[in-house]
Amino acid sequence: MRLEAITWERLGDLLAERLLDLKQDDGSHWPRIAFDGAPAAHPGDLAERVAEALRLRGRPALVVATEGFLRPASLRFEHGHRDVEAYYDGWFDTGALWREVFGPLDPGGDGRVLPDLWDPVADRATRSPHVQLPPGALLLLHGPLLLRHWFPFDFTVHIRLSPSALRRRTPESEHWRLPAYERYESEAAPGDTADVLVRADDPRHPAWNG
Q1: How many C-alpha atoms does 102 have within 13 Å on its Cβ side?
Q2: How many CA atoms lie within 13 A of 37 on its CB side?
Q3: Helices marked H in the chain
C-alpha cells in the first residue's frame, strides 16, 4: 500500500473535509468515527485535531476516549496487573459503550451521550452529565483495539506504528501489553480494514493512504 507524507495539520483538515461529506446508510443523524491506535500512537490527538477542524467549519463534534469506559480495577486486575488476555478482552466496558455512546446515536435515538463512565485513576464513577448532540454532530471515539467489537462506525481511521516503533514509544512499564497489540494486528487487520491508514513511526512526519 502506497502512503503519502503529510503534516498532522493538513491531515486533520483533510479528514474533516471528508467527514463533512460522509453519507450514512442506517438513517441515524450522528456519524460515528473511530480513531483506532495504541496509546503510543496518540489517536486522541488526531481526534481532537479533527474535531477542531470540524468546529471551524461549523460542524459540532464530541470526542470520547475509551479510557473513560474502563472496567473497575477489581475486574481489570482480577488475574493480575499484567494479564494480556484480560487487557485484550476485559479491560474496556464495551457493554457500556454500546449502551451509553452508540445506542443513543442509533436511528430513533435521542442523541444524549455519556462522555465517560469511569475514572481509572480514582477508580470510581465519574458522574459526568450526558451531552446532547444536535443532529449532524459527529462522535469521534478514540482508543486501542477498537475495530474488533463490531461497533457501528461510519468511518474508521487506524494509526499504525511498526513493532519497533511501538516498542520504542511505549513506556517500559507497559511493554507487557505489546502481545495484545500484536494479536490485534493479526486477528483484526485494522490497517487493511480501516477507511484511512496513518503511519506514525516518526511522530513528526506522518504518512497516510488518502
Answers
A1: 20
A2: 28
A3: 8-20, 43-56, 73-76, 84-90, 94-97, 163-169, 178-188, 190-193
Q: What is the dihedral of CA 57, 58, 62, 63, to 10 degrees?
A: 20
Q: What's the pLDDT at 92?
A: 96
Q: CA angle, 139 as apex, 115 and 118 as ends, to 5°?
A: 20
Q: Residue 160 in contact with residue 123, Cβ under 8 Å? A: no
- Asked if residues 46 and 11 have their Cβ atoms less than 8 Å apart, the reply is yes
pTM of the complete model beyond 0.90: yes
Question: What is the grid cell recorded at 19?
Answer: 467527514
CA dihedral 130, 131, 137, 139 (to 10 degrees): -50
User: Which residues partner with 155 through β-bridges?
Assistant: 33
Helix, coil or strand: residue 6: coil
Full set of structural domains in the chain with CATH = 4-199 (3.40.50.300)
Cα dihedral across residues 29, 26, 147, 92: positive or negative: positive
Residues 50, 8, 149: CA angle, nearest 5 degrees? 55
Task: Give the distance, in angstroms, between the CA of residue 164 and the centroid of all CA atoms in the same chain.
Answer: 22
Sites in the chain below the pLDDT cut of 50: none
The helix/strand/coil state of 78 is: coil
The predicted-structure confidence for 125-171, as pLDDT tens digits, reads as follows 999 999 999 999 999 999 999 999 999 999 999 999 999 999 999 99
CA atoms within 13 A on the CB side of 10: 11
